[in-house]
Amino acid sequence: MESLGSIALFVLVTETRSFTLAGKRLGISSSGVGKSVGRLEE
């Protein structure tokens, strides 16, 4: 089961339609956002 934070991050990506913008809002890199979303896909 994924953490609530990872799911919330995914929701933010879908709302912003951007890994970069989601990352900026959370203070993490777009690469970090992509890795987190990738882990959800596994």
Total of helices:
3
Series of H and E elements: HHH
What percent of residues adopt helix (DSSP H or I)? over 70%
Q: How many domain units?
A: 1
Termini separation? 11 Å
Q: The biggest beta sheet, please?
A: none
Oligomer: single chain
Principal-axis shape: globular
Domain HTH lysR-type: 1-42
InterPro entries: LysR_HTH_N, WH-like_DNA-bd_sf, WH_DNA-bd_sf
GO molecular function: DNA-binding transcription factor activity
Pfam family, one: HTH_1
What does this structure look like?
The structure is a single chain. The chain has about 40 residues and is an all-alpha fold. The protein has one domain (about 5-40). About 80% of the residues lie in helices and about 0% in strands. The protein has helices at about 5-15, 20-25, 30-40. It is globular. The termini are close together. The model has no long low-confidence stretch (mean pLDDT about 95).
Write the layout of secondary structure elements.
Blueprint: H1 4-16, H2 19-26, H3 30-41
Quick overview of this protein structure:
This is HTH lysR-type domain-containing protein. GO terms for molecular function: DNA-binding transcription factor activity. The chain has 42 residues and is mainly alpha-helical.
Features of the shown structure:
42 residues, mainly alpha, globular
